[in-house]
Amino acid sequence: MSVLLICTGRDPQVWVNAIREQQPNVKLYVYPEAHDPKEITYAVTWRHPKRVFNKYPNLKVIASIGAGVDHIICDPEIPKSALVTRVIDEQLTKDMSTFVLALVLDKIRNISLHHSEKKWGPKPYQTVEEENIGIMGLGVLGKSAALNLSKNGFKVSGWSKTKKHIDGVSTYHGERDLNDFLKNTSILICLLPLTLETECILNKELFEKLPKGAYLINVARGEHLVEHDLLEMLDKNHLSGASLDVFRIEPLPQEHPFWKHPNIQITPHIASITDPKNAVNQLLDNYNRMLANKPLNNIVELKKGY
Ligand SMILES: NC(=O)c1ccc[n+]([C@@H]2O[C@H](COP(=O)([O-])OP(=O)(O)OC[C@H]3O[C@@H](n4cnc5c(N)ncnc54)[C@H](OP(=O)(O)O)[C@@H]3O)[C@@H](O)[C@H]2O)c1
Asked: What is the pTM of this model?
């Protein structure tokens, strides 16, 4: 009955410290340190090496340390008997909605543009009331971002798979509504999970349905975006710019054309990062629930893919 921590591309030590501080008696191994695979029943993971879980015959739970689980589900060989859970955290959710609001305000008031153009003088700008913000994905993060933007005076609409009712937000759902959702959207924000259906959804065909001059914010996953379609739409001035926090390859390679594009703003996947001190309680609560044969929280429906 031990926990295995696999943390690729993030510092595992902060998680080790948080787990040990909260529950010092947990037997914890950090992959790839030596351990007996038969002992492991609970894995806490971020971007595990594919197929690694095949080696763990008694694994019951694979817990993502983030809100997304695409890094788990993309493994074709995750054991069928294991439950997959994710983090739903108030601070993570707040961080995403303030980050998105900051990007929108930066865009409409030309804040970064003034600096990059190095020209002294006012520029025409859109007021809050003039923008139509469209959010793809109205889950935990998308809904919170939508409410925060609406609270700040923006006209907000959102698109999801199933119908939603959110005060102050116009909602659309399904393929059938997508064109109507896009046609008035001046700032498009992607907060979809990465699934087979949503991979490459930010493509030329979709961009062409946005009004000329629309702006893209992608804070979901790099694989949602067809990169050369974005470059083409920017170069044709159909899109006015993009703020990207997530990329197909992270860290974004130095030679990538996005770094040099004057209308692309880049941040290094920092929109909202799980704070181990906040999330460790729910990870350990689920661990203790597993030990006590109680139902777990924040289980992901593998069939749905998110
Ligand atoms: N950049 C960062 O720092 C960062 C941090 C955390 C998370 N993220 C990303 O943000 C994503 C969203 O997180 P979340 O917690 O809000 O996810 P969530 O609660 O699972 O919500 C997903 C939303 O997307 C909708 N959706 C899924 N597939 C769809 C489809 N084919 N067509 C239309 N709508 C679809 C869902 O619709 P229904 O409600 O109808 O099912 C739901 O509203 C994560 O998966 C992760 O990739 C990024």
From this structure: 0.97
